[in-house]
Amino acid sequence: MEEFAADVEGDSLLASMGLDGIAVEQEPLERCHILDDSTRPSSDWIPVPTTFPDFPYPTPYSQQISLMRSVYQTLVEARCGLFESPTGTGKSLSLLTASLRWLLDRNSLVPVRLEELNKRLRQIDSQSAGLEPDWVTAYEQTRSVKRMLEPEIERLEAVKSCLSKIADLKASYFKQSSQLLDACGTQKLDKQYSELYGQPDLDCIDLSTDDPMEGLFLSDSSHEEPFSPEETNLDDALSIPKITQIIYCSRTHSQLSQVLDELSKCEKLSAQISVIQLSSRQTLCTNRKVYQLQHPEAINEACLELGRSKSRCPMRNVSAVKRLSDYLLSGASAPQIACSVRDNSYSKLFGKRSSVLFTHRPQSADFIATRIGCPYYATRESLPTAQLVLVPYATVLQQKTRAAFGLTLTDSILIIDEAHNLLEATTACSSVLLQLRDLQRVLIVLRTYQQHYRARLSSLIALRLRQLIQFVQSLQRLLLPSNHNRLTNQKVVTIPLMLCEAGIDNMSLHHLVDCLRQRHFVTKLAGFAKWVSAKSSNDFQSAEDETREKYDGSRPSLPTGMKSLLAGMKRSHGDMMNQPQIRVC
């Protein structure tokens, strides 16, 4: 930040800009779609409190009270706010106290609003019963008002029911814990467990035995299927009432864990608020065959493959995931549950009661993990009912990641803590690092795929595949040592200039992106690469002696390239620094 030390131009303008200058004019978060002021409830406005009894310490500092009042006022007016406070003044605690108190105050108005709207609806019905001869016009006016009132009443009733469910779950933490313990301690094997864990040496993520001929070629239709298999069904999304959520963002998961520690100090608030911390599969997966892959992309791919294959992940049992979801909403921590399952130690979850889990089945770690359920999908299941959602920057900044989790920013409160790190996080989310060997491996896969399915590809997909190969070849030439225009040392260029130097500035990248997005093409390429790699390795092993005599001991390029494609998923920092590379931002 030294280069910005002397940058004072415009500071006077920023200093004189009030909060209204950056305010976002919008309707209240929970909109009442009413025609006029006569039908709008009178309980929309919430007064800003002068004190905050929920603050865990008896006497807050004046700076903390001022910050909490400012945050509360900003939320009441549905505006954007920028707040700064010195280090060590309890910013996170003040933010949590003010925002959660506002949320509880706003939720307390839901029954009041609902009663006022129902009262107004009854008045309209009674007035329409005694209409005089000009009843047609009066009836149309009454019907218009009722059409605006009834959907709002239905929405508020759904929100009220959801809030009641949250209150019941928060009051039944020990009950939920006991139910989960009973489910883990049962001695009766269900059908799904018997099928999945009753078979010896079952490898449910082995893709080498899959038939690559099934569904690996593309059709002419564009966007026939959504790119992400994680997208939630629209009917299910509409059936879930949208409650007001506070999305609290920080840079890392460790910082979010510190936020949870701060929240635990506010006993009155934490006892009433449902909290969910979103994490990746790498953190929450409890399937040993999946999380032992270690690499995040490999874990994601294996998990998604289990969802598409016949051998589904046993942790994704519907009843177990639903039970675990309720347990998370009652106050449990998903990362702690995942850690306990991986370590096969449940004392932190169940205390001394955990000893009953191994009384009759001392080697039942997989069975217990199955009965507990998948923390990752339980987190996603409980997300619509969570009032406070803790997420890292990367989850919020990327639209596809938000869609995968089912996280929506509409009608939600977004709090970005430690916002000075936001610029760096945005750059990291929008950048990609390509090494020369990455391009070489991708080129091997694309050419092999093209040759294998040459007779089955449609004319449009064959064209896009040739363009994609040309695109990768052009980027590869930029980094080859024989290229006189190779980017030596470090050079910063714009993307159009880089494409011009590569000779592909006349190519439509949008068409290539559409091709990659349709029918999970990238996923199929990865599966095809694994299948070809395994098949080539087996063929080479069976004819190793003949191949050594014929080729003077050198292996064919295809198996080597495919093996390096899979082995290259783990790289050392030194290898990355020594390889020619392009960073696209």
TrEMBL record:
InterPro entries: DinG/Rad3-like, DNA/RNA_helicase_DEAH_CS, Helic_SF1/SF2_ATP-bd_DinG/Rad3, Helicase-like_DEXD_c2, P-loop_NTPase, RAD3-like_helicase_DEAD. Keywords: ATP-binding, Hydrolase, Nucleotide-binding. Residues 50-467 form the Helicase ATP-binding domain. GO terms for biological process: establishment of sister chromatid cohesion. GO terms for molecular function: ATP binding; DNA binding; DNA helicase activity; hydrolase activity, acting on acid anhydrides, in phosphorus-containing anhydrides. It comes from Paragonimus westermani. SUPFAM superfamilies: P-loop containing nucleoside triphosphate hydrolases. This is Helicase ATP-binding domain-containing protein. The lineage of its organism: Eukaryota, Metazoa, Spiralia, Lophotrochozoa, Platyhelminthes. Pfam families: DEAD_2. The keyword Transport does not apply. GO terms for cellular component: nucleus.
